[in-house]
UniProtKB/TrEMBL annotation:
Taxonomy, superkingdom: Bacteria
Keywords, ordered alphabetically: DNA-binding
Organism of derivation: Comamonas sediminis
Protein name, per record: DNA-binding protein
GO molecular function, one term: DNA binding
């Protein structure tokens, strides 16, 4: 699979945008910081950490000249599952992120409670992805971090 193969199915092409990449990285940083706030409920901590994961996944797509077709279902899944192609996130680390996506859907659409273990997993994965994305940007587009 290539990103180009997904154009028209689940992705569209866009101009890579350094400012948007920086904005998404900053937003992910804010959400990771929010997920650390102990005064928040587990649900809100989880939401903040998950939002950071999605912002980092979107950053990868934007940096490569793509974005999900949000008019079609599954754009969160597409963004997560393309991380191996966009920022070379190891394939074996995608499945835990996809499990977190499913947990988020259960929480949002069924009202399921979020456990502290789920919060910890989501936050750990968000921070690991953030570090990886930053390293990828340093290697691929250091000028975009200025």
């Amino acid at each position: 699979m290539s990103l180009q193969n997904l154009v028209g199915i689940s992705l569209e092409t866009v101009e890579p945008n350094a400012q948007q990449v920086r904005s998404l990285l900053a937003a992910a940083d804010r959400n990771i910081a929010d997920a650390h706030l102990t005064g928040l409920s587990e649900e809100n901590q989880f939401d903040a950490a998950y939002k950071a994961i999605m912002q980092l996944a979107m950053l990868g797509l934007i940096a490569n000249g793509y974005r999900p077709l949000t008019s079609k279902p599954g754009h969160h899944q597409t963004a997560i599952q393309t991380l191996a192609l966009t920022v070379q996130w190891p394939s074996q680390k995608i499945w835990p992120l996809d499990a977190l996506r499913k947990q988020r859907n259960l929480t949002d659409y069924s009202g399921d409670l979020v456990t502290q273990a789920a919060v910890d997993s989501c936050l750990t994965n968000a921070m690991a992805l953030r570090g990886h994305v930053h390293a990828w940007l340093l290697a691929q587009r250091p000028d975009w971090l200025a």
